[in-house]
Fold each of these.
Amino acid sequence: MLEGLLVDLVPYNKRFLDLEHIWRNNDSAFWSSGGDRYIVSRATIQRKAEEWAEEAERQGPARSVMFGVQTKDGIPIGFFALNWLLLHSRLAMLGARIGDPTYWGGGYGTDALLLLVDYAFDWLDMRKVWLGTTSTNARVMRQMEKVGFRLEIRERQQAWQDGTWADGLIYGLLRDEWPGRDAVIERIGLRARDGGDVR
Amino acid sequence: MIEGTLVDLVPFEDDFATHLESWMNEEAWFRMNLWDRREPHPEDAVKKYIESMEKKENAALIGFQTKSGDPIGGLIYDHEWSRVRKVEISFFAGDTRYEGTDEVLDGLLMLVRYCFETRNMHRLDAVALAFDEAKIDALRRAGFVHEGTLRQHIRWEGDYVDVEAFGLLEDEWPGYAAKIETLDLQPSDLEPKPKPEKKPEDEKKLAS
């Protein structure tokens, strides 16, 4: 377990999978997919999860690492993952979704991100982490700036969202630009909450 | 076959498949696949790669050759995303004598034409290692717009190198015929290379 201030990163297990039916059919899937709106059944989610598990087993742990994100009270709220590790370039692509919108904008995703970046640099010895979002995702753009990621590519009209084009944004963070989790927590003023979670 | 100005597009088979056994172990291939390590590709890996590209519905490996039928290299589109009408494109000159020539540029233009005018794509993505000047020059001449730099992204010969990212939108593409008119493409007039040697099992297959 990776312990944060507002969340912990834990093994992604059935507790999380059971909530995917809600998460994949709500707005969180729209944002994490860059504009898709899924209408997806429990059976499909189960089948995809099995396919994903088989693929992960075939490729081994060197290829990707997935965590469930839960509040300090143990409530599952989403996942954070290193979706694609390119070991010889020490490059890690991040992917994430806070599936429960109640927890958007409260620092939960940022706390999870700091834990994952720290894990990638200090445990997996990655040299760069990167991720993609879209120009309509103001929350993630603010988060990137706050945490210290740099915008590296603006892919024009890369995403189709509710009938209009949006740009794709690729952000990167190099290890020598990362002052460490504690320093970032201090700088952005992230604090644990007294009396548990917002809900 | 789809006919271009200096090159034609053909199925990636026969001599192309034989050439690929060496091409996949050479510099141009590794440069195109910037994600790749320089692991050796034995013959069966090459065959598997061709088969896997044949099977994919959202990707293709296409051969391009001179007007006299001399194989130059490969054109690839991959990860075609139908909802967004977007596809990643790449290309390589397996016969390195053609690197930086108008034949390769015409191959790229033909690939762009195919993606926009046949497959109805909206956006093409392309990347190049920052030091790959010939590739970047071809992308710019084809009309691709530089959209950013992935900093220190790829391990390359003991260093971490940048990757340049490009995009081209359908409304920026004037059409193949109009584009050709602006470019004055010139053939290199290189001598055709000898045909690759057939292995005994290939000869047997041909005979049967």
Amino acid sequence: MSQEITQQDAKDLEGGEQLALPTRPRDLRSNLRVTIRGRSVRLRGIRRIPPGILGWLLVLGPGLIATSAGNDAGGIATYSSAGAKYGYDLIWVMVLITVSLAVVQEMCARLGAATGRGLLDLIRERFGVGWALFAVVVILVANGGVTISEFVGIGAAMELIGISKNIAIPLTAIFLWYLVVYGSYPNVEKIFLAMTIVFFAYPIAAFMGHPNWRDVAHGAFIPKLSWDSDYIFIVVGLMGTTITPYMQLFQQSSLVEKGVARRHYGPERVDAYFGSIFSNLMSIFMIIATAATLYVIRPRDIETAADAARALEPVVGSAASTLFGIGLLGASLLAGAVLPLATSFAICEAFGLPKGVSLDFRRARVFFGLFTALIVVGAAVALIPNIPLIQLLLWVQVLNGALLPIILIFILLLVNDRLIVGDLKNTRFYNVLGWGTFALITTAVVIMLGGQLLEHFGIHLFGG
Amino acid sequence: MLLFSRIRSFALTDQKGRRAKLKDLAVGQLDCDYPQVTHLLFRHRRDHLECLPWRAVESIDLPTRQIKVKDIEASEVVPLEWRKKRVILGDIQDALILDLEHNRAARANDILLKEEDGKLLLSKVDTGLNAILRRISIGLYNRISDSTLHDWKQIEFLQGNPQAVKSGPSYQRQITQLPAGEISSLSSQLPYLHAAELLMLLPDPIAINTLEAMTKRRQLQVFEELDEERALCLLKIMAPDVAADLLGRVQTETMLRYLKLLPKVQSDRIVELLQYPEDTVGGIMTNDIVIAPMKLTVAEAREKLRERLKEPDFVYLIFVVENTKTKKQRGVIPLRDLITCDDEKTLEEIMDTRVPVLDAIKPADSAAHQVIESQLAALPVVAPGGKLLGAVTVDAAVLQVAPQSWGSQAPRIFS
């Protein structure tokens, strides 16, 4: 309402003139009818998440991407190995880990919304430079390992398509580096994401492999414990690849980037939960598909990417290798670019150093140095001749599993600090689940490492 | 120069040979160039943190890493309220700070103190990697690089708590001297709670301009962290279209509460704008415009508009209506014409009647293009009967058609 210049009109305003609204076309739907100062008005200019399923769908994003990123080269290798060697016996681990993943991802999302800050940033401010440095080393080792596995995945995928890894890996490393530093990464990201759609063939392959669903259900809900070193190794690998430290970094940073404030956090939980369930369902289908095609013939170790690709044969027949290669390439390229970038960003954030691809090398030497080093080391290790590909990928996941408890402690301490998260502090229920996850993973890691250490002294803790 | 990270590991000793471990240093007021250290914080025999005033210090012995005081037992237990009113150097170290000299957010990796006339003053902040290396090398690495040292005069320390502005210690407030656009750009480098605290520091007009220059997402995050009194204060003087945009995004209960608490005139303006979907002309128009009836003479209009022209953001066009009752749109007069025309002429005689008008419920995009192509500062928005509802300014039009990423950086000429 325009303010008038005469007293008469000022009186009109004070009297609460009914606002004239032009006749609306039918396609402009009403939004909210409210009564303000005794006058009923319909507000169409308000912007908020609509109620119901549409509202839930609109918040999906960071959580789904963060958890789906776990289904990368290392993830595929680990899930395929679990299915090919142990059939459906390890699905219970995935069921259990789904709850843990959902809880951990949700806590990170909550930390992001409550503070507007990244995980390493909070660790630095809450625990000081010493602990921040420790966390940085853990993240650097964990993410560095995963970056290596992504380049291993790129090499394996290229070889499935018929291109030598010795040519493909260096070229891809240069391409990814250039793309992030000078190119338009957000646009290319969509192509990488689209390439991973191939992995939707796994659920179809799982059904077309005609598994014994009773055995699947048994494997999912009746835990089978085996005192076998390989079994425990795979269990830790499954935990490490499913709840990877970079997922927590990514989840929290994405919430910050999305601009979610603490007062609007509620619906965002759904994203973290849905992302965890969806991504782990895909992982479970990978295990079922591999078990139904490879394990049923003969329990075996997965040695090469071609072995893993055979799980898709029931769906795509002889094209399995090529399609698997395309999917693996997309997943590896996606993570191979994001991971070094996110790691460098988080580390510079923790130390307050200039960061961001918009800066030049002189202003952000540490940022670009770290990013370049991660790509160079990742590509160089992946180029080592006769490297045991699948074993390397598995070891990286186990390393992630072993480092995960350290990151979990930081997350749990931060999310229980009322000075940091205020009212979004953990409830007792969340603490039970959070510390339960910590205990579960730590126990598995301690058993695995303890067993392997004792082996060196001639004490055989495990069978197998 | 003394490094806080080193001093923090010093021991307190007194004349009777008693020792205590220094925990921290406190400064009183930050609203000066170099704040003075006022207290030493340490633990001695009691469970609680204890403090001694700085005047109790007799000397600082660097080689033996000792601070010699008269009597450690003369200490007092630090009450919680006491802490709230002071800044502890341990809180500044490792925290985010604003480097106003280079317009960037940085991290205080170390703090440098200087002794002057028996006082210890907070002098500089080291934001470089060297500071971290010094701290983790336990004295093995001692390099200090001048390029990463920043004078405390140019530093604004924020605690990440918007409410601290009211109840906590004082602030440097050098930031208030920067233009709103720069403050907004600086705040975009900060977490939203720090940005809200920053906004709380600013005088109302600068705070509003800073808020307007932020992205819509950040506006909402920051606005919701302000206390009700401050938020209401800003809403009262904010342009109605900006206020409507903001209130349209907050929680419904909050929006209704503010609409009830605001003065009726401002509340009505906001409610009117909120009735239009955001992708329509009504959604981007402002209704805070200057209106004059066409029968007024130029002299009368000038006289009556004098006070009015001080209030709205958009004063470059005077919208001429048939009369103030019907408010039928008749034409527009640029402010320059109103000032330069003969006093005796009526507004009807000098107004431009060929100005195209916009329909409030038509799509915003096409209207925005129409405004830009018209080469005018704004176009009037009218109801089907011709009643003037508001205007779409060229700023709003540019923002509507510009890429979303450009939004907050778009120059604002007329609002």
